[in-house]
Amino acid sequence: MPINNTNILISGGGVAGSALALWLARKGFTPTVVDAAPGPRSEGDHVEVSRRGLELLDRMGLGGRVRALGSHHTQLRTHISGRTEPVLMPLEPDSLLIRHESLVRVLWEEIDRLDQARVERVDGDTVTGLAQDRTGVDVTFAHAEPRRFDLVVGADGLYSPVRRLAFAESDENRLRPLEINVATFEAPNMLGTRNALSWHVWPYRGCVAATLPGDERLFVTLLMRDRFPVRPGSLDQGALRRMVEETFGADGWRMPELLAAMRQATVHVAPETQVRMDVWSRDRVVLIGDAATCSGQLSGQGAGVALLGALALAGELAYSDGEHGPAYFSYEAAMRATAREARAVAPQVADTGAPEVEPYEMWVRERADAVLSRATRLMNKLGLRTARDPVGRDFALERYAKMFDAPEGDG
Question: Angle at Cα 135 formed by Cα 132 and Cα 138, nearest 5°?
Fold first, then answer.
């Protein structure tokens, strides 16, 4: 059967939008990707690709290239107050830390390998208006001339312009802050660790330093409990650094060295925020990735959920020969459980990494961590393994991946 609605606008050229463009193009659609950035973006800086996301990339033949650009962590080093040596806990290398732009670049390299140039890219522009009717969507842009598309996909992140335009209700009802601000920056690896995550936790705040490829640098994440979220773009670098130093300046461990490195780096601070929506589509417009299902930076699930969602949406559009109504319904049904599982992770990480406890309760927690570490090492010696990341365990990966193995034009 001929494919309907082949002319699809994707707003957002990050992981979700790039993956969707790739898989739609493989099945005969002609997507256009518009992105506000003038070129490759560093938005999100480094992202974590979950176990299920890596399985998808492996299944699609992209896993090797992605792994070569990222970091697996095989050890967790928990630093307990009053102890010189860290408590060590082995990690199953289920996930991967990779620079956001590197993951996106792999997806676009694959797009460029397609036999025909089926993906149009428009950089440095954004969607400013949507007008739907029975046969299509008229779209206006900040800079380009207005155009008409069959369908529009919002893959434009936590503060999605497409979501604000297509859904009349206030975004305040969809954005759920978790009352914790997260600061990130890169630093030289003064810890001397290899393939490791190093944790130190204090009441209401915490630090995790993850080694980057080559182990010469660290990606530092600082968690700060705060009922008042930092509005993106509201503070300059000086103010952001002062805020972090006021929170961690009196702390021991290696914080003085890390804070000194932060003064020479670009620091990003954002509130940990989730998106909650009852439906992800409205007529001919649909949302994917963080625009629909943001689970929070601390969850480590954003890239994986984006990849799964892009595959599900592309798969359902291909199965339905482009009929958007049934495709959108089935896409949401395929992703609801995974999105719910991903959202549950960030509050757990926040409770562990920046616990709302008093100092004496922190002392008890740290000793419990030491006992847990010894138990985990014993389990490993006995051949037992800790539970793997459960997010996306019921996602029908093979159902979609097999379809994309078929020659183009086959349903």
Answer: 40
Separation of alpha carbons 227 and 215, rounded Å:
35
Task: Write the pLDDT tens digit of every residue in 51-110.
Answer: 999 999 999 899 999 999 999 999 989 888 767 788 887 787 789 999 999 999 999 999
Domain that holds residue 261: 72-97+178-272+352-381
Query: Could you please report the per-residue DSSP string of 370-389?
Result: HHHHHHHHHHHHTT--PPPP
Can you tell me the distance from the alpha carbon of 26 to that of 118, in angstroms, rounded to the nearest whole number? 9
Per the CB < 8 A criterion, the answer to whether 42 and 100 are in contact is yes
| 374 and 257 within one domain | yes
The answer to whether residues 183 and 292 belong to one domain is no
pTM to 2 decimals?
0.92
Per residue in 310-353, pLDDT (tens digit) is: 999 999 999 999 999 999 999 999 999 999 999 999 999 999 89
Alpha helices in 32-99 (DSSP H): 51-59, 63-68
CATH number reported for the structural domain that contains residue 310 in this entry:
3.50.50.60
Q: Which residues pair with 89 in a beta bridge?
A: 76
Return the structure tokens found at 50: 């979950």
Give the single-character DSSP code of 71. Answer: B
